[in-house]
What does this fold into?
Amino acid sequence: MSFSSLIAAIVAAVLSFVPLTARAQSDSEWKAVEQALGKSGQLQPGDVFRIAMPRTDLKVKVQGVDVKAGFALGSYATFKKMGNGTMMMGDLVLLDEEIAGVMAGLLEKGIAITAVHNHLNEMSPHVMYMHYSAVGDPVRLATALREALAASATPLGTAPAASGAPAAVASGGPEIDQKQVEAALGRNGRTNNGVLQFSVARAEKITENGMELLPAQGINTALNFQPTSDGKAAITGDFVLIASEVNRVAKALREHGIQPTALHNHGLGDNPRLFYMHFWANDDAMKLARGLKAALDLTNTKKPEASK
It folds into this structure.
């Protein structure tokens, strides 16, 4: 081997080692976050570490429909490195009587409350949703979040693995045709414990205090289908919208038999200013998929990969 070839080989080896070392450090850091919060997580696109904390302890009905935790009861925390610190943000599903204690715990630890609101109507028992955000050491933030959640019955522990089977097969319940729903929406979904889920990112860059916010941090339109019976499905989720889109989307949803159930912010300093519109219906799955597609077409969303 010539001297130049030897140098090139050494440089290549060093370059290949650096990412592995950085990745090992990152994995170690996220393990510490998991231990602090008492829940396992997954690394998402854009190096966002997300920990799901579904309220599997709650038995909630919406307009008489028993809803799954992954359909409408999904507490979560996301962590994203931002310069010298880490941004933690997420959403907590809380019973009315849990709100004050959890809020007090978060505020005491310097974690900002960015929204408290409903997502759906006619829920029994009634639950609310608390959004939060903070920047700092990720392990300290995870520890503070866990301490605040002690004022609730949020279950912590290893989350069940997501199902790759067709919607509702794992539970032995009613089914919908996933491929037909995907074709109607023009997007691919994934099944999670019997719930068919779609995530749609906006096309423009979203920032908060100069830091870019990514879809995996909850800055995405979420569309969930839970099969009910005879090809029907309950749907919920939220559209992430700019101001000029709000009323057009509300009108499109209503024209297709889908009820807008809430409209609010999730953050405080996002740019452009974002509004989140939650919705509900329980009807023929294909009819609802077409209605959601009509509303999506009125928003500035990223095109599906297959259409590029």
Summary: The chain has two domains: 29-149, 178-307. The first strand starts at residue 42 and ends at 44.
